[in-house]
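User: My collaborator and I are trying to settle a disagreement about how two of our proteins should look. Neither of us wants to argue from intuition anymore, so we agreed to look at predicted structures for both before our next call. Could you fold the first one, then the second, and keep them clearly separated?

Assistant: That sounds like a sensible way to settle it. I'll keep them separate. The first protein:
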Amino acid sequence: MGSLRAGFGKIDITPRVGARLVGYAGREQGSTGVHDRLFARALVLENEGRAWALCALDLCYFREPSVAAVREIVGGQTHIPGDHVFICTTHTHSGPDDADTDSYPTPLPELVAEAIIQAASQLRPAALAVGYGVLYGHSINRRWIHRPIDPAVTVIRVDDDDGRPLGLVTNFGLHGVVLGADNLLISADWPGYAMAALERALGEEAVCLFTQGGSADANPLTRRVQERLRSGRPVRAIGHVSTYYGPDDSSDAWNIGDRRGGTFEEAAVIGEAFADEALRVAHGLRPQRVDGPLWVERVVVNVAAAPDERGERREAILSVELPWVPNRDGERPLEIMAVGIEGPSGILILGQPGEIFAETAMELRRALETMGYHCPMIVGYANGWQLYLPPASAFPEGGYEVDWARYMGFSPDLQQRIWESIRPRLAAHAPGGDRG
């Protein structure tokens, strides 16, 4: 029998009313109330003396200094090394700035660390399994509405010794933007509804984490969005990269990035649809005790554009938040982190510190499946936030996301550099297939 132990933690991280909400330009005042609470949810796994932690936050982003602060606290108060802590966000655009120290009586990194410390204190014998499902009909490609989104729903189920679910880790690529800039109520958006529904279904003590996949070019397809698509007005993609149903210069075009008018009811519809599919996957899994060792891999990749790669650097639009940029002249370092378990289960969670396109998530998953990983999980907004991390194919097309990448000084070849740097590390742990 394997010696795997697992523990979950959950801490409220809702800021005070009045906190500035981030993710949109044009909000001229702070939050006016709380519609639903925000949480830090954590999972700690331990086997044969090695441990790692995964923590998902109901925030838009969590920048590198905040990540470093959490890692220092966890490393000092638990047996988990700080660099074995993987932190990501659900990317709700109705949450606070992680650097807003005035909106929390207890510093936010301390609250996040508390969730991980709580999880570490709850360790018990456990079994797990991972599987795929799909969710169609609730997302749309916001750059090219005729192009694909990533429909994959990935679920890791963790049970206790008696076969009762302790919790889930879930993954899907879809922006947390059902609610628009006109919403001033604190909310976890559709991922919050989804996790609440899963926790109700599994029992009050269960904790369910949501991680974002390839969501950079995927927006919610709500009832209101469907009505606008059928309205007869031209539809313009975010960043004006494409236009449908009319001329590009039409004065009455609707921009698909305009989320104003989104409702909590629409957020609930998507949240419940995702929860239903995640439960369907979870119910079909047969968790097993794990014998293989846990592992962690971290690489720092310089994705700065070479002189001959630097295109026109336009002023970035639509966002009032800038990421924290490491002060390293001539370089743009990104931390790429993966955590996993060796053995037949082949558990793998691979994170990038920014917004990943659906194309990238699907390509990475395909390559990792070829290595032998059963259901690899690709996670964006992980261990920092450096805005958009587009694939090379997007750079000639331009648009909002590419403008941000150029503004940041990123190479069009950034995803290839990331893959070449992390691939040998992941191949070394692969349960089968390509270990080269």
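The second protein, kept apart from the first:
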Amino acid sequence: MIQRNSNLSILPFYGDIDEQNHRKSYAYGEVYPLYTPVGTIPPFQIITDHEAASVTAVRLYKAGGQLVSSILSGMEGGGLQRFQFTDYDVIVYPSLATQLYSGEGQYYIVIETTYQTETKRYYSDIFTAVGRVSAYLKIEWWDLTDLVMDDARVVYILGGEQDNFRNVVYLATELGKPDYEFDEEGEERDGRFFPEKQLSQKKYRCTFLASEPLCDVMRLIRLSDYVKITDRWGHVYRADTFLMTPQWQTQGDLASVEVEFTANTIAKKIPRPLSVVGDYNDDYNDDYFND
């Protein structure tokens, strides 16, 4: 696994199980609840060395380390595949399988790859399977082309009949306490302001707790072509702008993250003049002396 300082995946992966987020000294053993529907694995991508290795096993474990089952065939049916590039490869899973296991709880998976006689293992962080995700705020984001960086990428073009790869995260929060922005353009003459264009916009907001890996991947939302947000009532918002601001707590490994976004709520008006005193042409109709 190519080591980097920033996570690019909803479900993070590590080269050693001791790197899981809750095992950090300042996390105090607390597991961040990365929610996913029961039976599914959150979407993920793993950047590996360019070695033409194949995925030979995927095993599901409970958070305590108890083996649940082997799920390689199910995940392959759900879109698990490997993309090869010049300097690295990317293992991609778009989370299309829905019945890989049963039962709510906390799990992690271990992926094995084999090249010639060498076997490598990649350990996921812990995710939390719940029976009802509609109670959470759902955020999806994706691009129409791969997001390419200096030595990494997020693969969005999967090929075949599958849709583009979509990042999906469920957050324990809801939208509320919006901001209302007002802007106007015009000019001031003789001590009076004459508006030429007025704009009013509603800015949606929410606040939630997030781990460092989640903050890492959510920073890419602002760079994405499409951002879709669904609240607990099923209302869908197509975000035009997206800004997240994390503030790290004094103790523990979590940040209080404030998100704000806009979604086609602009009201625009070209105002009428402040006073109307007729057109002063020579037709001498009713508007000549209109005041």
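Some points you might bring to the call about the second protein. The first strand starts at residue 13 and ends at 14. The mean pLDDT is 89.
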